């Protein structure tokens, strides 16, 4: 199976979008075909992946998950019209637009069946055409996140090393993933936590990293951490991945290691996807 991976955390500033963009780019540089879906109506992933160019999208995530939208007789035609290439030939994306925020009440009013629209309209095509699909989720727990988890196989949770509140949030986020799995998607599995924004010079970072590794099982936390690195912010200013901005940056090496860990985890633990 070519996994669909949601990247979630119920708070902002944990490097979710940074993780989606750079892990996806790293995997594409390892020869994998990647699809990134921007579920966040702040559209940060979209801005980066379209290279900062102001060009209109004919179709977007809005069209894919709108409960009131007209559907084509050809299911693949619907999703194909929402997928766009990037400068990297192996990396594609489904953009988002700010107007998608108005879909939240429509999905709520549509009942549980509306929560499955992303899965029904995207999943088969993604599994058959891409090696990995990443869903960049909003920084909260809402219908968009629930829809993403229903469509996914695995979940990565980035967490900021410098926050003393991060540990409690992680436990609650993992419980939320388990709840969605129990109720809506029996195939959903928690993959790993990714510790981001690590400043090894500070004692608070070391303390929190150690606490996370003691709280969770070894296989539930990426061995690789993501360092605090201003190159990430600089890359985002230019709407680039860390690899396009400065391939020799420490952050680029870190995300390449994360990509390799993901491949190794899935290859060596078949029960992650097929228990």
Structure commentary:
A hairpin with a 5-residue loop joins β3 and β4. The protein has a single domain (4-272), classed as 3-Layer(aba) Sandwich (Rossmann fold), CATH 3.40.50. It is 46% helix and 13% strand. It is globular. The protein has a seven-stranded mixed sheet with strand order 3-4-2-5-1-6-7, sandwiched between helices. It has 13 helices and seven strands. The protein is of the alpha/beta class and 275 residues long. α1 crosses α13 (250-268) and α7 packs across α8.
How many strand elements?
7
In whole angstroms, the N-to-C terminal distance is 13 Å
What is the name of the CATH class? Answer: Alpha Beta
Structural class: alpha/beta
Q: Looking at CATH, which topology would you report?
A: Rossmann fold
Give a short account of the largest sheet.
Answer: 7 strands, mixed
Task: Determine the CATH superfamily.
Answer: P-loop containing nucleotide triphosphate hydrolases
Total DSSP helices: 13
What CATH architecture label applies?
3-Layer(aba) Sandwich
Uncertain runs are: none
Helical fraction: 40-55%
Question: Could you tell me the mean pLDDT?
Answer: 90
The shape is globular
Topology pattern, helix = H, strand = E: EHEHHHEEHHHEHEHEHHHH
In short:
Helices cover 46% and strands 13% of the residues.
Protein topology:
Elements: E1 4-7, H1 16-29, E2 34-38, H2 44-49, H3 61-65, H4 75-80, E3 84-85, E4 91-94, H5 103-109, H6 112-115, H7 117-129, E5 132-136, H8 143-151, E6 154-160, H9 166-183, E7 189-196, H10 203-215, H11 230-237, H12 242-245, H13 250-268
Helix pairs in contact: 1-13, 7-8
């Amino acid at each position: 199976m070519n996994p669909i991976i949601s990247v979630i955390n119920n708070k902002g500033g944990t490097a979710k979008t940074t993780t989606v963009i750079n892990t996806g780019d790293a995997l594409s540089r390892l020869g994998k075909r990647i699809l990134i879906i921007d579920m966040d109506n702040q559209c940060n992933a979209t801005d980066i992946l379209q290279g900062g160019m102001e060009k209109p999208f004919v179709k977007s995530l809005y069209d894919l998950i709108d409960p009131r939208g007209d559907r084509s007789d050809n299911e693949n035609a619907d999703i194909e019209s929402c997928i766009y290439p990037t400068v990297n030939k192996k990396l594609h994306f489904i953009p988002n637009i700010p107007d998608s925020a108005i879909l939240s009440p429509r999905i709520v009013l549509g009942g549980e069946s509306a929560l499955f629209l992303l899965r029904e309209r995207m999943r088969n095509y993604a599994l058959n055409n891409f090696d990995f699909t990443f869903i960049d989720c909003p920084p909260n727990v809402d219908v968009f996140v629930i829809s993403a988890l229903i469509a996914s196989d695995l979940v990565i949770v980035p967490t900021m090393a410098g926050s003393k509140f991060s540990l409690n949030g992680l436990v609650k986020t993992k419980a939320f993933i388990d709840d969605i799995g129990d109720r809506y998607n029996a195939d959903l599995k928690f993959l790993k936590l990714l510790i981001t924004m690590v400043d090894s010079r500070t004692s608070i970072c070391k303390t929190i990293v150690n606490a996370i590794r003691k709280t969770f099982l070894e296989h539930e936390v990426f061995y690789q951490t993501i360092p605090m690195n201003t190159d990430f912010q600089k890359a985002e200013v230019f709407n680039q991945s860390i690899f396009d901005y400065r391939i020799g940056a420490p952050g680029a090496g870190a995300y390449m290691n994360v990509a390799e860990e993901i491949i190794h985890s899935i290859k060596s633990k078949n029960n992650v996807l097929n228990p």
